[in-house]
Amino acid sequence: MPNPLSLNERYQNILRATIQHYIATAEPVGSKTLVEEYKFSVSSATIRNALGQLEKAGLLYQPHVSAGRIPSDSGYRIYVDQLLTLNESISKSIRRSLQTKLQGNLWNFESLLQRATQILAGLSGCIALITFPQTQTIKLRHLQLVLVSDKQVIILLVTDHYQTHSIPMELPASLQSVENTEILDQELQILSNFLNSKLRDKHFAELSHLNWQELDQDFACYTDFLQRLLQHIRPVLRPSDTTPMAIHGVAEMIRQPEFSQLEQVQMLLHLLEQEQEQLFPLIFDAHEGDLSPSAQDATPRFNGDRLNATVTLRIGSENPLESMRPCTLISSLYRQGNRPVGSVNLIGPTRMVYEQVIPLVESTADYLSDALSV
Questions:
Q1: From CA 174, how far away is CA 341, in angstroms rounded?
Q2: Given the DSSP bridges, would you call strands 140-147 and 152-159 parallel, antiparallel or unpaired?
Q3: Quick check: helix, strand or coil at residue 196?
Q4: Residue 335 vs residues 82, 202, 266: alpha-carbon distances, Å
């Protein structure tokens, strides 16, 4: 049985041909079809044996006993990561198409984003989903620690949008033992000044990168307090789970044979229409290294050297939401300068033309990044 991570050339070619034929036809693929249409210089029996071995390796499966094989989610993953060849001319063609179709009377970035979503859905035949620029661009303008009792302080935050937040926090035991509240007030003021010097004008993602061990040793006794204080601040500065997004292409996508069952369609529509907040971890956690250092699940990525930006894929069962299990989610971030502010996404059946839709997503993200940088 072949190792899925190190298929020999014959197994690679047979797996590639099987997946490409299934993507094109949505029909299970047998050895006879492969011999006739892909001109393999081996017998049908050899192909049949290879298909059986690929099935044992978990890369193919038979929907019925007498049927041919179709790709599993693991088979698609191997195909995308190891067997797929992307043509740079596709990316250039898509870029030219976007430039042609998006120029004209687009009054603002929101109009541009809506139109880009429509074009992406039309070109891919999938659901296109593009988030509006994230509110994670909020910066911390001022922080003040105010003593309200011998055991509690209030953290007062002011953002660069002049929003204010009050967060209660219990003092650590080492500070509760300070009997003179005037001295404690003075120390908290010193600590507030210290924190402002370190945190002022920083984004949330930057706050998460702070290394408290490098701070002045005079504040060593505050280490635990500072770490817990940051935990209290994070929810306030975290990106909103209700950031608007543009969605197009639902009608086209649900016509695919994978969505012939009404229950599957209903679950997906319910997610897109009423539970969009559940999509945000799928969209942004895959790029956690760009948006925040707190690593989530280790989602596999497509990091082809042939692309300029990281494109992330969640294939089938790699999606934690049941309604997304029949789908592949392809994502790429768009940026303002060097800072990621939003995400371009395609949701389609796992049986999609990956060599076309991957550069579609990447090129659209690049175009929006350029538009924001003008």
A1: 41
A2: antiparallel
A3: helix
A4: 28, 17, 33
